[in-house]
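Entry 14. Structure prediction run on the chain below.
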Amino acid sequence: MTLTPSHHDVLVIVDMQNDFCKGGALPTADGHEIVPVINAVAGKFTNVILTQDWHPRGHASFASAHSGKNPLDTVDMPYGTQTLWPDHVVQGTWGAEFHPDLDVPHAQLVIRKGYNKDVDSYSAFCMVDGITRTGLAGYLRERGIERVFVCGCAIDYCVGGLALDARKAGFETFIISDASASIFPDGSALKAWADTQAAGCRKISSADIV
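Output returned:
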């Protein structure tokens, strides 16, 4: 497969933040290793968007916000079952900053998510309540975008969630496999790859983009 980006395409780089890389509070298996791949891919796109997880202290998705709970426990929230995580990407902290080696100066938009203390957010299109939207779909339509290319951290949550929502919004969607990290490579990541491909997202390699 050979894909040549045009002005109708966008690359969305998901949550390439310190906490999701080596040494962070919620590291992916290989987040720090995909940064050079992302930089190289981004250079082939005119349109680039960065997403940034941006939690306030005491966020409802943090285990520390629930007495007696530990990371990876679950709780019932008004919007459904919530997996609990260690405190991560807290607003204004080192962990919430973009990885220092990420080099995408031509990115046109940084879209933050997860800033609502009571609702978690994986996809940059919509929070997990299925109601609260960020406006990303409208932005892409006004820009004349037809194809969405996705990479970053992590395929089993935020990358996969964004890809699924991009398909729901009617965009042709590609996930760049070697530019995407995972939290649980042998577990939820495998399910995310299956779910996204079943929804019509296409799994590609960075080498497919020329």
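The CA atoms of residues 36 and 102 lie 8 Å apart.
Filed with the rest of this week's runs.
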